[in-house]
Predict the 3D structure of the following.
Amino acid sequence: MILIGTGSELHLCTEAAEKLRGEGKKVRVVSLVCWELFEEQDAAYQESVLPKAVTKRLAVEAGSTFGWSKYVGTEGGTIGIDRFGVSAPGGLAMEKFGFTVDNVVAKAKAL
């Protein structure tokens, strides 16, 4: 499977990947911080980063999940915020929205 993180969410993906690898899963972590730059790369490079054969993909984005379907495909998933935010301390808000290592692991396993 491929876990895709952007910026501050990347650490959740790397920590989740370690847990999943500990359970015998094959996991790649990709930092995809700019769709436009990725799209400018040739097809061979894009395939080397996001191989079409790997359909279990999870994108973690502390923002809208709009547009991620292009990269996670029909068998993938996303963790994001598709509604207006909340008023709470940052760490608590992120936890409530599912931005935890345990949630990334659970969502990845559910793919």
